[in-house]
Specification:
alpha+beta; 2 helices; elongated
């Protein structure tokens, strides 16, 4: 269920910023105190450099707490970029 909400959020930000989500994978874990859980997300997104930055800014401004842990960017021959992200989404 939480995955559905996160997918909706990521898809919304992707569409609004003209990027394409190429892949998504998830893992769920609880913190040591049990006060919250986090959904670990690995995703690959493609778009122009500016659109990828706008996508990251949209995550930063989103009401859900997202934390980008790692990011790698590959420049493609067609002027687009692929961005691989490891993100945590937190919830109570």
């Amino acid at each position: 269920l939480l995955q559905d909400k996160v997918i909706e959020t990521l898809a919304k930000h992707s569409e609004e910023n003209e990027t394409s989500i190429n892949s998504l994978s998830f893992g769920i874990s609880n913190n040591k105190d049990g006060n919250f859980s986090k959904l670990s997300i690995t995703t690959n997104i493609s778009g122009t450099h500016i659109n990828l930055i706008n996508f990251l800014e949209a995550l930063e401004k989103d009401g859900r707490k997202f934390s980008v842990n790692t990011m790698s960017v590959q420049v493609l021959e067609n002027g687009l970029e692929n961005m691989s992200l490891n993100i945590d989404a937190f919830y109570l």
